Amino acid sequence: MGVSLKDIAERAGVSLATVSNVVNGYRPVGERTRQRVQQAVDELGYSPNLSARHLRRGRTGLIALAIPELNNPYFAELAEIAITEAAGLGYTLVMENTAADRGAELALLGGSRRNTIDGLILSPVRIGRQEVLSRTADTPLVLIGEGVYDVPHDHIAIDNVAASHAAIQHLVAIGRHRIAFIGATPGGDRQSAHLRVRGYREALAAAGLPYRSRLVARTDAFGRLDGKRAMRDLLALGDPPDAVFGYNDLVAIGALRALAEAGHRVPEDVAVVGIDDIEEGRFSTPTLTTIAPDKGEIARLAVRRLIARIEGAEVAGPLTVQTPFRLIRRESTGTPGG
Amino acid sequence: MGVSLKDIAERAGVSLATVSNVVNGYRPVGERTRQRVQQAVDELGYSPNLSARHLRRGRTGLIALAIPELNNPYFAELAEIAITEAAGLGYTLVMENTAADRGAELALLGGSRRNTIDGLILSPVRIGRQEVLSRTADTPLVLIGEGVYDVPHDHIAIDNVAASHAAIQHLVAIGRHRIAFIGATPGGDRQSAHLRVRGYREALAAAGLPYRSRLVARTDAFGRLDGKRAMRDLLALGDPPDAVFGYNDLVAIGALRALAEAGHRVPEDVAVVGIDDIEEGRFSTPTLTTIAPDKGEIARLAVRRLIARIEGAEVAGPLTVQTPFRLIRRESTGTPGG
DNA sequence: GCGCGGCTCTATAACGTTATACAGGCGATG
DNA sequence: CATCGCCTGTATAACGTTATAGAGCCGCGC
Q1: pLDDT at residue number A338
Q2: Which residues belong to any copy of the HTH lacI-type domain (chains A, B) (predicted)?
Q3: CATH code at A20?
């Protein structure tokens, strides 16, 4: 099949080991022989057989990014950056779809892909601290996004409570008093939903506004349709909200749709804020005010940390890194001038 | 590190080869020994080292899906299905981002990943028949989506001309006369753009409408922003269009945004149609009429064909498969009742 | 002149798997 | 009873790479 080290060695009249050393610089090689080998490599068009290399090295060169939904634009944007970063560091990133399924998350955590991948970046939604702590697999693991804290693994995330707080603060600042939250999972195990509700409650309290449980809408999932349904229910209340904060941009966009169908004006009647800053929200009508996490920072940091662990490098600094976020004001909460 | 065949063999008191045969059924094994081996496998928790297997078999178990933009929801939806299908057939799918770059497409075609993957599904946008024909790599290749015809490879796509034709026909049917097209690349090499423009022209001709080159807007890329800019330019014409057909849903959504900003009503002043049926268009305001390709069929077919080729199976039927599409009427062209 | 260290390079043993060639046993067939 | 073929199982040679041990050579210092 392909050209192997042996072919190069014969061509250049040197030993196998020398070719290997030229190719990956493990030990120095004399200038003259180096050139001869290099020439043979170029002429025959050699590229190493990765399966063999990995077998020998005990690594596969693959890392997995496991996310709950590939379709969610937030994760798609994150994935794109992560793929590029990994490629730049000599690794191939494969996407793993957990479909927000607890069993799938547990399987990955337990090492179902142990022999396929060198490391795992996981965005957990249905598992918590306990499950992570009791894992036995020794594949390096980096957690992103959700609230699994105090575990001996790298964890990259925004401060969910603070982000939520900032969103509500903004709605308060533009004069809203009946602020709803869409995307709670009261009995559920979605960690970040709890955290975002907590931020919501804290911000209300800080503003001296009452917490009304009827304004906290639970959803089964976190897509556009879920947001739309929840908004419809909220509008059916005797005293509907004058502002809504969605668990994420998709939910918020679903809410926008429900408001449009019901003939309400945004932001005049109801203001809307989301989280994620997906591109869709920059082109919706109205455009969507949102909390923008630094996706580039999250993705790159996660990949770099993981690879550092794989390669046994010392990683400075704390395990948990909170990446910055900022509020981006758009039409759905009224432009600053108006 | 992990448990190897050898460990199992020792534990069960049989030879290496027998364990291998139990594990992957290459040759029959007696019932008694099979059970003993199976027990050892279960007890020690063995799973095969894929690098070694791949080295020996000459395959990696990886296939790549190379697309021009991971961020485009159309491709994200496609990718999700493809990943699942591939996993079901025992392969891992890795995403490769060509970023619509000609060099990247050529490199992949030329086999830059030869040693990493067993096969490639490519959505070409900057290369054509010639480039595919002159490729020397022997890795199985399946083309999807764009117009590279008459090449000795599997090719899964919708009939771009017919799809475009159907969209225009619909706009004609609801009484529009000045129909614009957004997303042409006159000098460019985007094949499907040419085909969709052709369908546009044919449908105009069939309806007895004149072709006006000023109503064909060229764009550099095919995202929301490109659609928005092009629409703005079209609105600046002395006699603006009363309908717009976008190269894809993203472009159409950008057009919707430009129309909203300029204060035009959709569909009363301008009707809008896209292609792809991405979920975003079911929640935009107004919702977007679109040509819906069968994404599940495209993705699954592409993966199945590729794997069949990799495994040397005979594949019945023609190389080129045109998958069905249908028009989905939504608010942006007026509901059927109104 | 001898020994020693440094510099290049070579030979070779793994890594864990699968496919091939082969060996032994046992029943059926002539 | 010899022969053939089938059924189980074994031994072993690859697959292509990298790391380790060591061989040869040269110059330097004693």
Answers
A1: 44
A2: 3-57
A3: 1.10.260.40
* Residue closest to B74 by CA, chosen among B326, B331, B304, B277: B277
Do residues B118 and B140 share a domain? yes
- Over residues A202-214, mean pLDDT: 96
Tell me what pLDDT residue A336 has.
Answer: 60
Query: CA angle, corner B69, sides to B63 and B72, nearest 5?
Result: 115
> Can you give the residue range of the structural domain that contains B21?
5-48
Rounded distance between C-alpha atoms, residue A178 and residue B117, angstroms: 55
A284 touches chain B (CB under 8 A): yes
Q: Check whether residue A43 and residue A144 sit in a common domain.
A: no
Q: Which amino acid is at A61?
A: G
How many domains does one find in chain B?
3
Q: Using one digit for the tens of pLDDT, what is the confidence trace for B158-209?
A: 999 999 999 999 999 999 999 999 999 866 677 788 899 999 999 999 999 9
Mean pLDDT, residues B268-296 taken together: 97
Based on the fold, state whether residues A152 and A300 are members of the same structural domain: yes
User: Could you tell me if B282 lies within 8 Å of chain A, comparing CB atoms?
Assistant: yes
Beta carbons of A252 and A244 less than 8 angstroms apart: yes
Task: Provide residues 53-112 of B with CB closer than 7 Å to any strand C atom.
Answer: 53, 55-57
Give the whole-angstrom CA distance, residue B14 versus residue B9: 5
Classify burial at A67, counting beta carbons within 10 Å of its beta carbon; exposed 0-12, middle 13-18, buried 19 or more: buried
